[in-house]
Backbone:
């Protein structure tokens, strides 16, 4: 006999499905326990003994808004949902600990796709040593993944907010920019890849489909003396504005110094766009933007190199407010919502 | 110039909207800081210093699946989403600490409704002293609230899982059952309220629209010697099965002892249903089911009375597996998915 209240909204066979997904998650190498996690998925709540300080962040991906199937595969979606959430922990300099996964699943999204989604999420969890501590599955009109991630540090002072940047410091970014936006263009308009090196084009697509959270670099930068940090989810024009606002300073960016990923220029040209607009306003590169005193630059570079990433100085912190592009340089294509708030 | 990537999926004016919602949350009396919460909403992640042990749970409500607008008001939805999540912390005996709110919002859901939703969520957060530590707003095809709640205890041993019930113990429930299912019937079929005391009918509707998480009772029961606990979200027939499975025991329920909320019988009769089916299978009452040694019953009753709730013995724990209704009693209408797994 079915329960009388349709309002409970259970997915049919929810408990069996969750058990199957947990097994699949383990097969992907993801743990459901950790030294901190005493009681994991399956009870009313997960129980942990965090010690020190925790950083907690939430992030959601919604089908039709943040991704489409295709070009995203279910595994891409699982990977990206966790990656985007973990990127916020990277931006705090935290060590990733646990993730909680809330899934909204339409009836058209079959069990095999759920298993593939779990593979993608589980593989990244295993790689980043994130324990899947809990979750929930409900029926929804489109596929939705709402992630909560918890990171750890020995003490709260080890975690880096957006608020510590001081005038005179340098602004630097990890890795390379513009790849995620160029990858999205390639996914939406396949003809743009004509004449591009296929391997290079695929690297650009993967920046969009499977971004990598910069957890090791974030921890290394926090330890190396960075004073403020944010991840580049919206694009440096917007995200530098958030950092500047939180720190009550101005961010002055030199657009010609932005490290463009290989192929961004070619894709932009083929699409009739400017490379700088992809790198500054495209977003979703999930690199880290940091402020740091000039005397810590060498140490910081060594730290990110240890995490396999370059560190490029792209500007400086000044007193004032907002984001400005430095005068005199080449800034055609700079996509900035905060340009009008130039520092004095 | 709009960002090139539609895939980012920002709600227009997201940052201003979040700031407005934070102000509204504070006006409702909800804190965005606590002694444990060092850095709240607005950075990449919230930073806290938990100390002791934490209990973390996630829960989501989806429009059209878990609620409809109307009969739910936006404030009801905000209240219920937080209440349902906190109920899991109650079932651990945890003290509520922080909540993270992920909102998926359709374009048709205007800013004023979002403010009202925030009022409902904020009022319950203020009442239960839950700090709103973070959140996220994304565009979605229907209204979605995905909550993450964190509770605290001095040590992990103070938190109560589902797994500690032992044969010979009593099973007891807080408060009264069937009200949420009866309230749903009244909301769906207004004519059923004819002849009912209007105040009583309204109390039933509010059990559905604005459930109360039993946080104080949960902490009191954990301190009073309960050995296992679960909240009644699916209905006692199903939830007793989860407790029994986690504890590797059988739960034997005496249906005639279930404490029915006033009016449940009358609504069931008017709807051509059996009162027991609403109380056993209706779900969403969010009372607590506990196992405890008989010699702790008086202390446990005193504990829940201190939280304003009755505690009613409804059965016992036996060796075996599954849920059974005790032989000989009146069990017509018992809604059980696990009945066939009678203990040996």
Residues:
């Amino acid at each position: 006999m079915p329960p009388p209240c349709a309002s409970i909204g259970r997915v049919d066979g929810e408990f069996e499905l969750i058990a199957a997904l947990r097994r699949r998650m383990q097969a992907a190498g993801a743990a459901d326990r950790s030294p901190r996690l005493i009681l994991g998925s399956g009870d009313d709540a997960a129980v942990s003994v965090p010690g020190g300080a925790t950083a907690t962040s939430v992030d959601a991906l919604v089908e039709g808004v943040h991704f489409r199937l295709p070009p995203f595969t279910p595994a891409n979606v699982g990977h990206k949902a966790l990656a985007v959430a973990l990127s916020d922990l990277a931006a705090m300099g935290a060590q990733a600990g646990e993730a909680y996964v809330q899934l909204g699943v339409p009836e058209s999204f079959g069990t095999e796709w759920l298993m593939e989604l779990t593979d993608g999420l589980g593989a990244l969890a295993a790689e980043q040593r994130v324990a899947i501590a809990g979750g929930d599955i409900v029926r929804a009109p489109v596929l939705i993944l709402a992630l909560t991630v918890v990171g750890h540090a020995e003490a709260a002072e080890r975690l880096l907010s957006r608020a510590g940047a001081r005038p005179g410091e340098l602004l630097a970014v990890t890795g390379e920019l513009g790849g995620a936006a160029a990858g999205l263009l390639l996914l939406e308009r396949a003809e743009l890849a004509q004449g591009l090196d296929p391997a290079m084009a695929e690297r650009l697509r993967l920046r969009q489909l499977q971004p990598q959270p910069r957890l090791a670099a974030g921890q290394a930068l926090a330890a190396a003396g960075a004073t403020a940090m944010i991840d580049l989810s919206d694009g440096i024009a917007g995200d530098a504005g958030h950092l500047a606002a939180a720190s009550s300073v101005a961010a002055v960016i030199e657009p010609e110094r932005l490290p463009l990923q290989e192929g961004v220029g070619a894709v932009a040209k083929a699409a009739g766009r400017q490379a700088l607009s992809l790198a500054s306003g495209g977003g979703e590169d999930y690199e880290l933007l940091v402020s740091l005193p000039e005397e810590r630059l060498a140490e910081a570079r060594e730290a990110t190199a240890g995490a396999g990433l370059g560190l490029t100085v792209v500007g400086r912190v000044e007193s004032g407010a907002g984001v400005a592009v430095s005068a005199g340089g080449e800034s055609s294509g700079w996509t900035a919502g905060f340009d009008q708030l130039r520092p004095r």
Observations:
- Confidence is low (pLDDT under 50) at residues 1-8, 337-344 of chain A.
- The domain at 6-158 of chain A is CATH 3.30.1330.10 (60s Ribosomal Protein L30; Chain: A;).
- Chain A touches chain B through 82 residues (CB under 8 Å).
- Chain A has two domains: 6-158, 170-325.
